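Annex B. Sample input.
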Amino acid sequence: GGEQMNSLILVNRRHAYSPDTKQDLISVHEDHPDILLEREAVCALSSIMEQLGGWEFIVPVSGWRSLEEQLEIYAKSLQENGPEFTAKFVAMPGHSEHQTGLAIDLGLRQPDIDFIRPAFPYEGICQKFRELAPAFGFIERYPAGKEHITGIAHEPWHFRYVGMPHSEIMTFKGLTLEEYLA
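Annex B, continued. Sample output.
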């Protein structure tokens, strides 16, 4: 029954994702029916986008992924990009935040979008999104200079729902989820 979604769940190289609660996944946007997130995260994301008029310029690239999908992405990246790139930008299957339904990759709307590394610059609408996100429970999950802590390269496009007030505290103090939970 009424298990509370754990918005602070930690999934990284050292912590595998073990699905312990039933997921309530819905589409992030009607134009992208295949991209799913936890209902609470979708509501928060919609509020940000509404305030920004963001959906006109920002595209959801990847949301919830099953273990199978992560295995596929990982194998394909190994084959196409090699082990070094893959270790940097693709989480090991079972260790991806995308499995939680609380993480989303966003890209600036353009003709060609890189699925693994979509463009999400620190300017314009993308930066406005980034600045507004913490007020709605989202953080930029893999900042530059924290690679040794997160185990993942800098990913300007990857946002994670942690809920309020955690998102604002982490952003204000410059903490990653790992540091905040420690």
